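Write out structure tokens for Putative membrane protein.
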Amino acid sequence: MKHIFSREFWGERDVEQYIGKLLRYGVMLSCAITIFGGIIYLYQHKGIMVDYSPVPTGMSFGVDEYLRELNTIFPRMLHFDGAAIVQFGVLVLIATPIIRVAFSAFSFLIEKDYLYVVITLIVLAIILANMLLGLH
């Protein structure tokens, strides 16, 4: 049996098919989570009328504060908060292409294509830096 980190192991497999499946399943999982959370959200908020009045100047739209950080989303998901589940679905959708970039770097490393490893890691670093440092 060939070692999983060897070039021969991955040479027999089409890495591009794995990347395609990763993206496809990530989007499908995100949709399923978001639909499930949306159903729970609608059930929890049935009968509540939406206020469509204009927003006064100086106020901003957006999600509730507890939906802006991972450490508050996960506990609320365990209590079946529909909005937190929907937000988690969005996070899964955002994470899918980021995982794809990381997997690409791994596959280039296995193929010993170091130029593309460096380029892919630079792209991954830019994405992560923007996510982590771009928040207010």
